[in-house]
């Protein structure tokens, strides 16, 4: 019995060593810019974002900066089409080739500050189909657009008297999962409500991401209950870092964002969390924690796909 369990635990560590050796990661500094003062003026919102990114890097070396969901437009189904812009499908796209107002501005923020930038999300129009998407764009330190993620799961909520919102009235859901490579490791992308669907984070984690990062804008009904819970759940499920970046609360706006941008470690510890006001949340991402968390509790190599039913069919 003892012998069997020793054999099993040493084979877990061998397997773990093998899987960890495929993850190329080094420590990096993350900044989540919880923007305040956003309005209906797209150009002004982009200027606020540019000032926020600049402020984030002024505090010392930062490698990756994140902006919130739909920061250049009001978060309203009636606004998405009006604010939408085309975004290239063929990626990477060089900084100089970007044409729309927001992608050009975001590219410049990345280039000027020499950072990786997860540019929150913006409404995208695809001219061939006339579909509108809620799309996150990511830029390297040269300002090239390296990847985009279209929100896969559309936020349709109806809690009478509290929160009603139906993104699917005007948006189309994306149909791809997206990660991108950086010198400090692979990063997985989701947008806000996407965090409620554990399959996305699990697949990204199995592809070797260090972190799942979600530009977001939860609300004051679901935020207090689920915001931290969901981040800790995705982190612990997959033993990865998880971060969500929100706009600040805005008393005059039709949609009240929850705020509370935060970063969670692979063991579920909340490393940093904002309140509801405009601010920047910083976190040092110690990638050693991926290995130490996984070797203590080897869940990432104990999955029993031979036993689980086919998830999609429920058989
Ligand atoms: O899942 C939630 O409770 C909030 C999601 C949300 O606000 C969004 O997807 O924009």
Automatic annotation (TrEMBL):
Repeat as UniProt keyword: no
Gene Ontology process terms (BP): asparagine metabolic process; glutamine metabolic process; oxaloacetate metabolic process
Alphabetized Pfam families for the sequence: CN_hydrolase
Family statement: Belongs to the carbon-nitrogen hydrolase superfamily. NIT1/NIT2 family.
InterPro entries cross-referenced by the UniProt entry: C-N_Hydrolase, C-N_Hydrolase_sf, Nit1/2_C-N_Hydrolase, UPF0012_CS
Gene source species: Filobasidium floriforme
Domain CN hydrolase: 28-287
Superkingdom, natural source: Eukaryota
GO CC entries: mitochondrion
UniProt keywords, alphabetically: Hydrolase
A molecular function GO annotation: omega-amidase activity
Name of the molecule in the record: CN hydrolase domain-containing protein
């Amino acid at each position: 019995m003892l012998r069997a369990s020793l054999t099993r635990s040493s084979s877990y560590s061998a397997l773990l060593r093998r899987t960890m050796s495929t993850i190329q990661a080094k420590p990096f500094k993350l900044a989540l810019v919880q923007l305040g003062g956003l309005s209906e003026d797209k150009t002004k919102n982009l200027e606020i974002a540019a000032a926020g990114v600049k402020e984030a890097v002024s505090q010392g070396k930062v490698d990756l900066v994140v902006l919130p969901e739909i920061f250049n437009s009001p978060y309203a189904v009636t606004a998405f089409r009006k604010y939408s812009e085309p975004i290239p499908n063929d990626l990477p796209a060089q900084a100089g080739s970007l044409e729309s107002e927001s992608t050009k501005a975001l590219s410049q923020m990345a280039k000027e500050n020499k950072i990786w930038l997860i540019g929150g999300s913006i409404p995208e129009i695809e001219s061939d189909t006339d579909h509108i998407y809620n799309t996150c764009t990511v830029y390297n330190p040269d300002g090239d657009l390296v990847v985009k993620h279209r929100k896969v799961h559309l936020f349709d909520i109806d809690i009478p008297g509290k929160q009603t919102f139906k993104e699917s009235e005007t948006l189309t859901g994306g149909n791809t999962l997206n990660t991108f490579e950086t010198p400090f490791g692979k990063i997985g992308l989701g947008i806000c409500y996407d965090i409620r669907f554990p399959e996305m984070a699990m697949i990204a984690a199995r592809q070797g991401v260090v972190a799942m990062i979600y530009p977001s804008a939860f609300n004051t009904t679901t935020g207090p209950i689920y915001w931290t819970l969901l981040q800790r759940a995705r982190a612990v499920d997959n033993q990865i870092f998880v971060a969500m970046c929100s706009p600040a609360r805005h008393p005059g706006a039709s949609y009240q964002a929850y705020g509370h941008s935060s970063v969670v470690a692979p063991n579920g510890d909340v490393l940093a969390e904002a309140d509801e006001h405009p601010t920047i949340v910083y976190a040092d991402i110690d990638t050693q924690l991926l290995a130490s968390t996984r070797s203590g509790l080897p869940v990432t190599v104990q999955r029993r796909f031979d036993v689980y039913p086919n998830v999609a069919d429920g058989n």
